[in-house]
Design goal:
Helices cover about 10% and strands about 55% of the residues. The protein is mostly beta strands. Strand 8 and strand 9 (about 145-160) form a beta hairpin. The protein is globular and about 45 Å long.
Length: about 160
């Protein structure tokens, strides 16, 4: 059932991307864990993700517990930003569902297939060209035992069509 759902969402993603004007590619995910240090958390997550028009997002990664995870969600980004020369700093969030976690591993656990996903973000963006930006995306995840700081790089391609 999980594969049918993921296939359907991927189909929606591919068909709506024909109408997109921007595409974001997330990669090089890593994290810092300020929680129970007795566990050997995975901190390099082999992340690959896509977002359309800074909204619908899908990502695949190996989570901190060494399980394969898929995220399907929606990105939000505030329009207000701080500019320091060409560098832009703004706030955002990702809300959605994620697979690959057990009940004692995530505080937003729903069942054996999915958990809720909410990550507030602080995003640093630098333009490479007029239509391509490179961002460092930093998120914070509260945990029952502390916090997890998550980071990844993102390439944004604007005005594609």
């Amino acid at each position: 059932m999980k594969w049918v759902s993921l296939s359907g969402l991927l189909f929606i993603f591919v068909t709506t991307s024909a109408f997109s004007t921007s595409l974001e590619v997330a990669f090089l995910g890593y994290s810092n864990h300020y929680v129970d240090r007795d566990y050997d958390y995975k901190e390099n997550h082999q992340l690959i993700g896509l977002s359309i028009n800074n909204g619908f997002s899908v990502a695949h990664f190996v989570n901190s517990y060494h399980n394969r995870s898929t995220l399907i969600g929606w990105k939000f980004r505030m329009d207000d930003e701080i500019k320091i020369y060409d560098l832009s700093i703004h706030l955002g969030a990702v809300v959605g569902v994620v697979t690959g976690y057990e009940q004692d591993q995530i505080i937003t656990y729903i069942n054996e297939d999915i958990s809720l996903y909410l990550i507030p973000q602080l995003i640093f963006t630098y333009p490479i060209t007029d239509t391509i930006d490179l961002s460092v995306v930093n998120g914070i995840v509260p945990d029952s035992k502390g916090i997890i700081l998550m980071h990844h790089l993102q390439l944004s391609f604007d005005n594609l069509f």
